[in-house]
């Protein structure tokens, strides 16, 4: 796996935070922290531009609290993944019942999250100097409307040199929210070339 994964993004709820490593102690950063901050700032801005949702950016230890043993820290330090982020989605950290997101916020949350993830994908594409790509949306969704039966969605980017990026899992509402508009829009961008 080392060197084969370009991004590791883990989705959590709640607090509206875009977190990068390291989380085990305050003021502890990977060597490429400037790259993580640069892409993170752009992603947070993309999220905000859609619906005005504001995310805080920083390490988990610095903007939340120190926490050891996180998969994001492992992905960065042991698996050597370049772009590693832990996202704390809506609602904001002051909401009392934040784990029970109002259903009217599900699609906006999916759309704004996708806007931020697209920034990370763009950064990967630039770092790999990819000039064109084909988009694939794979799903084990069996057509039922029961969201409990949906387990994993994969979004992959490929070019002739077999470069692949996978983001998984995404909730069906998030995929439906972007599939018809944003994904098609994004496909056109890739086919025009970067």
From TrEMBL:
Keywords: Carboxypeptidase, Hydrolase, Metal-binding, Protease, Zinc. The keyword Cytoplasm does not apply. It holds the Pfam family Peptidase_M14. GO terms for molecular function: metallocarboxypeptidase activity; zinc ion binding. It comes from the Eukaryota. The active site is at 88 (proton donor/acceptor). The keyword 4Fe-4S does not apply. One of its GO terms (biological process) is proteolysis. Residues 1-124 form the Peptidase M14 domain. One of its GO terms (cellular component) is extracellular space. Gene3D superfamilies: Zn peptidases (3.40.630.10). Its cofactor is Zn(2+). Belongs to the peptidase M14 family. PANTHER family: PROTEASE FAMILY M14 CARBOXYPEPTIDASE A,B, SHKT DOMAIN-CONTAINING PROTEIN. This is Peptidase M14 domain-containing protein. It comes from Wuchereria bancrofti.
